[in-house]
Amino acid sequence: MANKLNKKDLNKLFFRLNTVRLTLNYESMQGVGFMRALAPALKKIYAEDEEALKDAMKRESVFYNSHVNGNAIILGIAAAMEEKTGPEDKDSIAALKTGLMGPLAGLGDSLVKFTWVPIIGSVGAALALNGSIIGPILMFVLYNIINIGGRYYGVVYGYEKGLDFLQNNSDNDIIKRISNMANVLGLMVVGSLIATSVKVTVPLTVTAGENVIEVQEMLDKIMPNFLGLFITFLVYRWLKKNNGNHAAATIIGIMILTIALTYFGVL
Q1: Cα–Cα distance list, 194 to 106, 188, 225, 227 (Å)
Q2: Residue 246: helix, strand or coil by DSSP?
Q3: What is the pTM of this model?
Q4: Which of the residues 144, 165, 187, 229 has an alpha carbon 20 to 30 A from that of 202?
Q5: Which pLDDT tens digit goes with each residue over 101-129?
Q6: Burial bucket for residue 192 (CB in 10 Å: 0-12, 13-18, 19+)
Q7: Burial letters for 33-43: b for 16+ Cβ neighbours within 10 Å, e otherwise?
Q8: Cα dihedral 149, 44, 36, 248 sign
């Protein structure tokens, strides 16, 4: 079966990729921008099925956040999977995005922001301090060779490799195994974020005779960061029950409740 997407379509994905962060928000982060970048491909893939197009746009606009160069690779892979997978395998797309966005974000930050930028910045600054206008120009050119070039190559590479894999491995077990691995990796990343980012402590103490028991110390002995995990679980259950429809109100409510409990010395 001939591919529905061509080089012109991939170019559209590349140009839209550069505006992914314009729709950055605390509910879905880059989710809406990612869906918009992929929209030209989705419209072509599902040109004859409007309901499938709606489902695909909803599927691609869920929570997502990664480094922009990592976005390029994931965008290409997502386009290939949307084109070649059947209806029963569409959930694997979200699982793959979740599994890849964290590692590629860390890789992009470490290689581009913390390695390439300091190197070319030092070279450019040294030339500029010597009075040469070549310094800032050189830094701009070298940065965008990796920045812009990496984005374009990432989209094309992700699409071609994703397409090759899906065409050469018709066995659905391959996709299921990838989906399972991506789910496990995604859960590990989310679990790490909960343990390191969600901090909930209580200053309460219990006096028994001459002994003073600190509640937080007792909880840490049983299970460190237990309260953070418990609160995360409650919020997750609440959002899942309401299909994420009240995410913004939930965030505001948690902020107000946290301020109130801190004021009264509970937290």
Answers
A1: 17, 10, 9, 10
A2: coil
A3: 0.65
A4: 187
A5: 888 888 888 888 888 888 888 888 988 98
A6: exposed
A7: bbbbbbbbbbe
A8: negative
